[in-house]
Structure formats: structure tokens, C-alpha cells
User: Fold these one by one.
Assistant:
Number 1:
Amino acid sequence: MRALFLLPLVFAFPVFAQDGPSFDCAKAESAAEKFVCGDAALAGLDRRLSEVFSAAVSVAAGLDAGADEAAGTLKAMQRGWIKGRDECWKASDERACVETAYLTREAELVATWMLEEPFAEAAWQCEGNPANEVYVMYFDTELPSIRVEYGDGIEAMWQTPAGSGARYDGSFGRYFWEHQGEAAFVWDQGAEQSCKLVAG
């Protein structure tokens, strides 16, 4: 079932003159922040994510109901994301970890808050039941992402490596793995469903 509160928003990202990240490198504390300050490409990702996050907060603040709660939750989740990014010093490839953290968060925000128009949409029927439908929107983020609407729930997912087809992973073990008009779909942890493309 498609959600009734979709808020499409085409967001034009501005061109930045500075080369550094969105934060003051003189105040950088974590290893990840210092790493970003010394890498022009990562600094660019940080600036871009800052704009994406600001756009998401604007959408949340403009909701007809629950705006304050939504914006507050979004900011809390961003603080949690920063803590997760700052754990990248433990990774064997710190740069790859930091880059993936930024791209994943960007994909999640764009798909969750509809910050750009999807380039494709599709309906999938699961377990041969017409009432058991998954609706998927596809976004052209740098790390490809989708917005999955299932029942009354919404989940943003981002592409992860797969041997064949396209696999997208979300939180709590959820994933959508499609290949040639068929898909494996997990919403409730561990319960995989078989789905077929019916429209798109």
C-alpha cells in the first residue's frame, strides 16, 4: 500500500566555493573528522550531506502533523550517524568506511524524505497474494537507493554488493533483492518472501 503522506521535493544542491567540509576543521575532534579534513573528496561529501540533511529537516519541519517530533527524531538519528562514522577508526580501510558512511546516509535521507524525484517506480506482488504488495521507488543517488513501502511502513534501502541482480539493504536485517522481474524480500527479520514484478 502506498503511503498517503508522500512529500516529493526536488532539491537543487548549491555549488560551494570552499574546499573543506561543512564543519570547522580547527575544531575537529574525532579521527574521522580529521580524516575528512585532509581529504578533498570526503570533504565534498560532507558538504553535500550537510545540505541533504538540512533539506530533510526542512521537510520534517513542514509536516502537517508531528513536525516537531519528526524533526527532533531526525536530528537525534543524525547524531547517532555521526557517532557511527566516528567508529571508522576501527576499520581496516578507514577511508572506505568513512566514504561508505556518507554515501549510505545520503541515500537513506534522500529516499526517506523524497528529496528528489524517483527515476522509476514499481509494484511487486509477494507470495502470489494480490493483497501482499510491495511498492518500490528508485533514486539516482551516488549510492543507488530505494524507498520501500509495505503495509503502513516505509524503509529506505541502499545498494550493496550482490552476485547477481540488485540488492538493497535497510535496517534491522531488511532487504530487497531483485533479479529479472523477481525479488527476495525481507521485512520481518528472517522471514523471506518471494515477489514478482506486476507493474513498473
Note: The chain has two domains: 25-113, 120-199.
Number 2:
Amino acid sequence: MKLRVVDFETTGTPEDRQRGKAVGIVEAAFCDVDEAGIVSRPTTMLVNPGIAIPPEARAVHHISDDMVAGAIDPGKACMILMDGMEPGDIFCAHHAEFERSFFAGGAFPWICTMKCAKHLWPDAPSFSNQALRYYLNLEEDFARSELTLPPHRAGPDCYVTAHILARQMLMKHPQKLIELTGAPVLQLTVRFGQNYGKTWEEMDFGFLDWCVNKAAHIDAEAKHTARHWLNQSRGLAGTPFA
């Protein structure tokens, strides 16, 4: 069994696509992680998305139209990502929902390292790729630290993600990580508004009820957590931490 960690740099987001804007991949990379947690050197490829790269996307990854002019097309890049995958293997990404919006990965299951991090390290100050890198002190794990730079490029980012995954594999079997990827996250602390940083457990009934029934702009994880503690206050069963 191998776990293939993938990362994309793109011209935009899935939300841009939902608004009718053309969005494509400009760079793809992968690292393989074996069952012992050994991380391979990343394989990186520039990709020609067939559309212009907007300035706001270039501001993140600094990839230009000239750089991808002679690059492979997205279909070829996805074929390369599939090459060598065998029954029992797993795809992984730090924000798997994002990567899967560009590349389904066939019938292989996925692990989202960001989602698993929220289950396994709920008190982390942030769940971004780079924040977890330093929170977990991954520097001591990197065989070649130069492969982690620059950030916001597909190769370095997937190399960091692969090491986050290796740490998670020390705590949970990959099959359990697949399960955590699909499980709703129960947050420890409120991450918005005037109650930012306070624990959900100490929130009163009125605030919890507002989050569940009236708040329109809080994310699904916050609403799920509010519903859990609201049920607790009513004496109903809730969802335990992983």
C-alpha cells in the first residue's frame, strides 16, 4: 500500500468555477508515502490550463503564462498522477475537497490531512499546511529541507503535507484517517466573533441556538459543534471527539 499525496496550483478556486469562471491547474505535484511513513522526493510538473493566469492567482504561486506555455495539458497531468496506483492505494491532499474538485482520483479513497489534523490536534493555532509544519516541528523529519521551499508551489507543499500525513500515521492507521476525513469535526474553541478563543463548552444556550438556527455565515464545522453542545444542554446524545 502507498499513499500518494497530491497538490495543485491553479488559476482560481472551485467557488470561482461555481460563479461561471473558467478555472484550471497550472502546476501539479505528488509524493508517495509508504506504510512505514517514508516520504519520496516530490514529482512536479507545470501544466498549461488553456486559459490566462489572473494576477490574483499569480500573486500566490508566481507562475506566469510564459512558464506554462509549453507545458503538458491537465489531462496528461492527471494521467501521470494515476500512474502506478494499485488496488489498496490511497490519495491524500491537505485540503482534499479542493484537489478533488480538479482531479477525482478514480475509485481510490482519499485522506484529507487538514480534516484529520482538526480531529487529532484540535488545539492547533491554525490548520494550514505551513502552520502545522511548525506546530508539529516537522523540521526534524525532513530528509531534505530545501524541498519544502518555496511555499505555495505544488512540489514543496505536497512534500510538507506528506510529512504531516506521516505524523498522522503514527497516531492512526490510514483506514482510520479515511474515516476521520469523512467525519464531522467537533471544534474545541469558537473561531469567530466576540467569543473567539473561548471554548464551545462554555457557550450559553442563547449563543448556541443562534449559531444553529439563525447564523447564516458560519461554516459547517462551527454549526455542527454548536448543534452538539446545544444537544448536550438539552440532555441529548452528541458526537464525541475522535
Note: The longest strand covers residues 25-34.
Number 3:
Amino acid sequence: MKAGYRTVIGAALCMTIGLTGCSSTGNFGGANFLYKNYTVADGSAVAGEGRSVLFERKPLALSGTGIKVGDSLREANLTQADLSPINITDTKGKGKVRIISVVPSLDTPVCEEQTHYLSEKNKGLDKMVELVTVSVDTPFAQKRFAKEAHIGNVTFLSDYKDAEFGKAYGLFIKGPHILARTVMVIDANNTVRYLQITPELTQLPDLDKAFAVAKSLITAS
């Protein structure tokens, strides 16, 4: 696919994944964030080569080796805010329960709401688990987003270089170079215990269910 065509597709997705445009609406920090009534996805797509997700009912092919519940967390390098590399298996929550939220781009309203919800509606889980957001936004963009959104309890990691994370988990959408919208819960032994890939990119994942799974893992331990 030619670079120019890829850019056009990426721009179109950016304008409509969040339904209202690419610019961040995140000047409403913390409890003042203005939540919208976005649809929460029912069910999950399947990760990996040969699978797809929908964008406004049009299929977009996934690339990479698909992850599923019961699999171990796979090694994949991401970039931190200070531009240093870190493996997803070795984040600060290693050895504890982790919730990994994957978004196509933080600068779209649905992705923004997903990230605010993770940060603000987790019912105190952020004191016990690590909350992680992964996107292909640059570390600079992620840092700016976190500052404007007043989010300090989420670890932001960037897959902007080679989409190594997206490919390792079968969540990479090659054409527009974005990641499929996903939430996964990882237990203390680095095993995937819950996974939802939204079948339609414009819909939110069921974060409340992810929170419930994470809480049950903490209670069981």
C-alpha cells in the first residue's frame, strides 16, 4: 500500500473512530471529564492473521500471531515516556494483576473516553493493580494527553516504532497502522485471564467486566 493512500485511510479512521474528529476533547480533567453515551461492545473479535475487526461495518484485517485467554503474556518491546524501551512483560506491575487497555489513537473521543474510564471508574483497583494503556501514538503525544487529561494512575506505553506489540498479539491493523481496540486482564503469573477485542472499532470495550475479573483475581489470591 502506498504511503499516501495509507495516510488518507489513517486520517479517515482518525476522524471517525471517535465519531467526532481527531482533536482531543480532553480538557475536562479528572472527575470533570464529559462522558458520552458510546456503545459498549458485546462479545469479542478473535486476534491474529486471517481475522478482522470492523470499522463502520467494513472489515479491516488483523496482522500477527493471535493472543487468547490462557496464553502467557508475550514479550514485546514498547517505548516509555522518556523514550526508553520496556518489555510489556516487565512493567512495574509485574508479579501483580494488570489491566492492559489498547486503543487505536488517544486523540479520538472513543479512545479518550476508554482511557478516562480506565483511570477514573476502576473502583479503587488502581491501588492494587497496574493500569496500562498501549497505543501507536508517540510517547510525546501520550505524555501530552496524560497531562491534559490529568491522568496519573495509568502507565502509557507506545507501539509507534514497529508495532512490535500489535504484531506479537495479533492486534495490528496494517493499512492505517493502528491497533485494534482491546482490553485484557493479566494475572500475577503473566497469564491472560480475560480478553475482549471490540468487533467494531467505534465501540468501547466492556471495562466493567475487566474490572470484575481483575477484582476476582485479587480476591482469589
Note: Residues 95 and 189 are 6 Å apart (CA to CA).
Number 4:
Amino acid sequence: MPNQTHDDITDLIPAYALGALDADEAAQVEQHLTTCARCQADLAAYEAVTDMLPQAAQKIEPSPALKKRLLAQIQTTNTAVPPAPSRWQTWIDNLHQLWRTPRWQPVLALAAVAVLIAAFILWQQAPPAPQQIELTATNAAPDAEGVIEIATNGRATLTVNGLPPLAAEQQYQLWLIEDGQRASGAIFSVSDTGAATVTITAERPLATYSAFGITIEPAGGSPGPTGERVLGHNL
């Protein structure tokens, strides 16, 4: 195959990132990449996206038992007629044949670029995961667990488990703490199993508070903490 021009190599970069070139074309691309910084940057951008595609899934080494069964099956069927290729393999073979046809190479290269761009856009549009803040139990309630979850829309909830149920004249109160100042975020009771999920009310975004605490207070809550602390974060 004659040496490719720079523009020809640029057109082959998407297919090279997908591993869809034959050996001669791949060799020419690799030789060109050793001296062309621009194509190196293009390849790095394509490879960053292809890593998110199904083709980039991590290979898993089969277990020794599975290898043994496969080898035994191969030994017993080595004289049998080879099975027909799967639809997937047939599709891959046809794609390779089309790629070797010069008039189809630009079309397939554009299709590969379109797939990469679509995958990149979907990755960018994926919503971020909710932020979670774990609360640590104190000696007053050593079996307690708590987590604050801040959704992407700013709504926050508190979920607790293992807190001792309180008498009717007492409730738990969540405190939002910043610079030594404490604001009430929720007043709640728990079920007989010690569980509860409540919505947190705050004057500003919850992520701006540096610490959190839950104390035992009179029913209806207190202006400030007065009882034992059962859960906390950064205290």
C-alpha cells in the first residue's frame, strides 16, 4: 500500500482507535504518529471516548474449571464440522470487508466518529450521583447509623437506623453546624425498630455546612442542643 498523506492518516485515526484497521494501515498510522503531535492529540481524544464503549470492557480471565471443560470439549469435537459463525461475528467480518473497500472507508470513518461523539455526549449528560454524608454513632447510641443524602436538585434527606425509640415527651433533632453556629434541620421520632427518613430543611445549601449532629431534645425541638448527642459528622 502506498504511503498515506497526512489527511489520509487523519481520516484513519477514528478507525485506528476502534481497532478496525488492517495490519498495513495500522502500521502506517503508527509510523505517522511517531512524528505528528496533532494526530497524537486526536488519537488521545478518540481513545478517551472509546474507553467508555462496550469494546473497552475489561477482559476477565476464565476460571481453571472453565478452561478444563472447554479443553475437554475441544478434544472431543476436534473432528466435527466447525460451527456456523454467529450473527455478531458475521457482522464484524462484513464490517472488516467494507473497511477494506476504499469507497466505504469514508462512510465507516464518519459512522465511527458519530458513535464516539454520541457516547461522549451521553457521558457528559449523565446526572451526577447524589452526595452522601455518613454520620458516626456515639456511646449514647452505639448501634445507630445515619446518612444524609443531598440530591442533585438540592433536596436533602436524613435516614437513620438503630436509634433507641424515645418517650412521648422527647424527639431527636438534627443540627446543621457552621462556624460554631447551629441551626435545626429536622425534628423527628423513630419507629419501634429505630428507623426514620425525614426531609431536611435548611436556609442555605446543605453542602455549605461543615458539620452535623443529632441530639435528644424535648418534643417539638429546642432552640439549641440540650441533650445527649447520638450521631454526628465532623464533630
Note: The beta strands are 131-137, 145-150, 156-161, 170-178, 181-188, 196-199, 211-218, 229-233.
